[in-house]
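REQUEST ID: PR-0412
SUBMITTED BY: lab tech R.K.
PRIORITY: routine
TASK: structure prediction, single protein chain
INPUT:
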Amino acid sequence: MPEFVFHLSGYNDPALDGETVRLLVQRLEAHSRRAAPGIWAATDKLNAYAAKGPGREKRRTRYRVYGVLLLALGIFVLVPGLMEPRTPVLIGAGLLAIFSGILEFRLVRERKPPAPPASCKREAADLLKRRRSIDWSLPENRTELRFDGAGLSISAGEQAETVSYGDMTAIFETERLWLLLYGGEQAVLLQKKDLTTGDAAEFLPYLREKIAENNEKDRRRQS
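STATUS: complete
OUTPUT:
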């Protein structure tokens, strides 16, 4: 039976700020997908079409060609217009062509992902502030989390808590972190560097399998 043990340490890496926000965005999207699956199904289809739709590469090539032609035309018209005696009409036409060429090149660029909601930024800042205010090296703050066949065991100083896999609802991942949700609104922010026992590559699939198994058992009981 796989076993994964974490010993918590400082959350001082600046990279955790952005990654914690991304985890909370993942959590928000997962909640939204459960609440409105039909809308998300339509959104996913539209996004897939936009990303891989027919003619996408041809459009990108066309935008590049138009951009080069418009820039060349703009320079060709602008230079004579700037020579004495200056010709305002040629100057205006040249600048317009150059501006249009730049717009064509911008159409080739990939769209930037939307900015994360302000609520996720605030929650991430609060979560990390609480974590960073703790000196995890002190004996009274030393915390061990152990995942085994029975579930999660949390030992913090003289306190102990257990969480069954049936109480876990979801887990999300970034490069350095995992965010585990359980018991409704409770969450555990785990750093991958704090994993002292077990294979990091196996942790996420293992937990997701356990969560899925218990969700399936709940559906069977309800039916």
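NOTES: The longest strand covers residues 143-148.
REVIEWED BY: pending
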